[in-house]
Amino acid sequence: MPHDPLIFAPDGSVTRLRAIMRALRDPQTGCPWDIEQDFASIAPYTIEEAYEVADAIARQDWPALQGELGDLLLQVVYHGQIAEEAGHFSFEDITRSISDKMLARHPHVFGEESRDKSAAQQVDDWEKVKARERAERDQGGVLDDVALGLPALMRAVKLQKRAARVGFDWPQTAQVIDKITEEAQELHEAKDRLTQAEVTEEFGDLLFVMANLARHLDVDPEDALRAANAKFTRRFRAIEAALADQNRRPEDSTLEEMYALWNAAKAREKQDATR
């Protein structure tokens, strides 16, 4: 079957990728799976690819990062093709709007404003520009455009930052810690008389306040939890390795033995860190 020659041009860049996507979505000759997809069905893959980009960066696996960035770019091209077919906007509209946005949000680079600002001042200016853009879109509510699809912890921090800008915030970190203690105590005392739905709600309240503490401490809770996950994985694998040297598995040992091996792994990490 005939195809656009650009599809087979190795130096076709994004234009080649767009031609490939058009061919995949062709109602007569395309891929049945690709033809069936829409914004909603593709969105989970978009989120997954963004996380895989972050994972490659965390592992400093640069060859993998190249591939993952390609996968993420494919998602943008995919959404752009679906939008173009539906008559919503074109791929050129996407690139034009983001280019215009970068110009508008960086007047210290592309305009007359001075570059003599700290990074924090530039972030503050960025947020002011975003607030003006929201007002122009008739999004008057402070929380109106905090994306629903964000990871829950990330969205909690963004919601709290927005509220804090208009003064709805604890002024001191100690007050946040007091609230965490209160919420944890309430959950502990009430867990046996609450329904599962109520326990889930109370636990959500506790996590929300923990996210607030992260914000007050200038900690990214997603990064912190990701690091804690990696540490747990590393130390548990050390337990497995130590037991394997004895021809044993975790299920063949006691909790006390595993705790001892955990603490040994922890001590080795601390020793290695001081060398």
Automatic annotation (TrEMBL):
* Reaction catalysis annotation: ATP + H2O = AMP + diphosphate + H(+)
GO molecular function terms noted in the UniProt entry = ATP diphosphatase activity
Q: Does the keyword Hydrolase apply?
A: yes
* Class of enzymatic activity (EC top level): hydrolase
For this protein, the record's InterPro entries field holds: MazG-like_dom, NTP-PPase_MazG-like_C, NTP-PPase_MazG-like_N, NTP_PyrPHydrolase_MazG, PRib-ATP_PPHydrolase-like
GO BP terms in the entry: dATP catabolic process; dGTP catabolic process; dTTP catabolic process; dUTP catabolic process; response to stress; TTP catabolic process; UTP catabolic process
> Known EC number(s)?
3.6.1.8
Keywords of this entry:
Hydrolase
Q: Hydrolase among the record's keywords?
A: yes
- Name all NTP pyrophosphohydrolase MazG-like domain ranges: 37-110
Provide the family line: Belongs to the nucleoside triphosphate pyrophosphohydrolase family.
* Name of this chain's protein: Nucleoside triphosphate pyrophosphohydrolase
